[in-house]
UniProtKB/TrEMBL annotation:
Chief location category: membrane
Swiss-Prot/TrEMBL GO biological process terms: protein transport
Similarity annotation: Belongs to the exbB/tolQ family.
Cellular component terms (Gene Ontology): plasma membrane
Protein name stated in the entry: MotA/TolQ/ExbB proton channel domain-containing protein
Membrane topology type: Multi-pass membrane protein
Length: 222
């Protein structure tokens, strides 16, 4: 039994590393979808602003998010009752329609697991080495030299597979980590901006501009 486990330890490490690599790409697609939802929501929210930031079609979604948030902050510093503040106040429901993209706990938990488990591969390699050495020592006295050499070969390959998997996944994580961290930062900024908008857009900003324009006309006719 020990020999069987030892012989498959290298294969198990390689399969786990490939699954781990696939999981990183799933996280990348997950993050891309959340960024797209945030951009679409903020663009709908700021669609009525005449001085809305215009960015190139190939601009990164994180940059588009920050540009939309900057446009919202520019409107919030305007005097109460300004047309732009009224327009944002009327569109406040857009921020509340779909907020699932702001729920970051599941994504951050999955990313933390993927990042932390990279450290398990060298340990798995060492475990495979111990199993191989144990299988070699547990063989009976009449075991051939070839069998013992095979077990020690399994030990070397197990250690190599664990270290190679860890190095490769650390490299992959270094490419994805800035984008994942930026997404968490974008979510935080969106939450803060949405809270600030709801807090600062008061009753004076919820006046219907059509009602305001028809009032003088009504008074003139009377």
């Amino acid at each position: 039994m020990l020999e069987l486990i030892s012989s498959y330890s290298t294969v198990a490490i390689v399969v786990a590393a490939l699954a781990h690599l696939l999981f990183f790409f799933v996280l990348a697609l997950w993050a891309r979808g959340d960024r797209k939802k945030i951009v679409q929501t903020l663009q709908r929210f700021t669609d009525s602003l005449p001085n809305r930031s215009r960015m190139d079609y190939d601009a990164h979604p994180s940059d588009q998010i920050e540009a939309c948030l900057a446009d919202i902050h520019d409107v919030l510093v305007e005097p109460s009752g300004s047309p732009h503040r009224v327009a944002l106040s009327q569109r406040m429901r857009i921020l509340d329609e779909r907020r699932d993209y702001l729920h970051s706990l599941r994504f951050e938990t999955a990313w933390n697991v993927a990042r932390t488990m990279i450290e398990a591969y060298p340990l798995a390699g060492v475990l495979g080495t111990i199993l191989a050495i144990g299988a070699a020592l547990a063989s009976d006295d009449q075991a051939s030299v070839g069998v013992i050499v095979t077990r020690f070969g399994d030990a070397i390959w197990s250690t190599f597979a664990g270290l190679a998997a860890a190095i490769t996944l650390m490299l992959i994580n270094s490419f994805f980590e800035p984008g994942f961290a930026k997404l968490s930062e974008n979510r935080l900024h969106v939450r803060e901006t949405a809270s600030k908008a709801k807090r600062e857009l008061g009753p004076a900003d919820r006046v219907d501009p059509n009602a305001m324009s028809t009032t003088p006309a009504t008074e003139a006719t009377t």
